[in-house]
Amino acid sequence: MKIIVGIATAGRAPVLAETLRDLAHQRRQPDEVVVCAPSEEDMAGAADAYAGVRLMTGPRGLTRQRNAIIAAVPDADVVMFFDDDFLADADYLSAVERCMQANERVVVATGTVLADGINGPGLSVAEGRAILAARGHETAPPDARPVFTGYGCNMALRLGPMRAHGLTFDERLPLYGWQEDVDLSRRLAAHGDVVLLADARGVHLGVKRGRGSGVRLGYSQVANPLYIAAKGEGYPRSRAWNHIIRNLMANTAKALRPEPYVDRRGRLVGNMLAFRDLVRGQISPERASLL
């Protein structure tokens, strides 16, 4: 089985280099590592961090960069997408290969996140490595249980069904993507199983640098779920609205005293602009890029 690790990145070259260094410790080495970024500056130090890494420049935007990686590996069986700030346990790729070989129905496999800095101020590389070291002695069963969606920071995709059915990441979801993992997972779920692997473990640092405007993200928090649900491809409107309301309530409640690492006021403004466009019948994911 040919497994490619793909990393889409922008504006976080130092973290990317550390993530690539960690990949060298995988017991099952990837057959190739492909990194796609808007500019060479975004990948500074990457070539020294992982021998043989393929560096590509492409259009800015998570979905576009990930599609560029898939297009660049036409003979791959699986693309393992890691975020540029995801540190994988040394047995991660072994667990993915074991699962994909044992069950051909698995089309998306996502790992167990031991700690997620996205929910707080973020974790340093040293903190992430310490968490992995502390949990590395624990034995996890090779268990794969069904889940609604893969988590984009660590998501393995079987490419056969994607090629057969013409499936790609939706490039109408601009910038950081926001829910692009849910969208593709639900479209692939029509052709196989989406699973969570207990023995593929890692830490998502949740680095805040390079994540862009809070206003744009706030707009996407409303526009993207509604757009995905309107496709009618396995993402219920009720789930979309639950997601929107949860984010709106959090942004409203914390706007007066926001966390120092979250632009709550910007997100709330973006939420309101999206609702304005919804009432006017002008809402679309692409409009976030114009804010």
How are the secondary structure elements laid out?
Layout: E1 3-8, H1 13-23, E2 32-37, H2 46-49, E3 54-57, H3 62-71, E4 78-82, E5 86-88, H4 92-102, E6 106-116, H5 125-135, E7 144-146, E8 154-158, H6 159-165, H7 180-188, E9 193-204, H8 214-230, H9 237-254, H10 264-280
Shape: globular
CATH topology of the largest domain: Spore Coat Polysaccharide Biosynthesis Protein SpsA, Chain A
Mean pLDDT: 95
In CATH, what is the class of the largest domain?
Alpha Beta
Please give the radius of gyration in angstroms.
Answer: 18 Å
Oligomer: single chain
Number of domains: 2
Structural class: alpha/beta
* Major β-sheet annotation: 9 strands, mixed
What is the share of helical residues? 25-40%
- Proportion of β residues? 15-25%
Total number of helices: 10
CATH superfamily of the largest domain: Spore Coat Polysaccharide Biosynthesis Protein SpsA, Chain A
CATH architecture of the largest domain: Alpha-Beta Complex
Pfam families: Glycos_transf_2 (PF00535)
InterPro entries: Glyco_trans_2-like, Nucleotide-diphossugar_trans
Organism: Gluconacetobacter sacchari DSM 12717
Protein name: Glycosyltransferase 2-like domain-containing protein
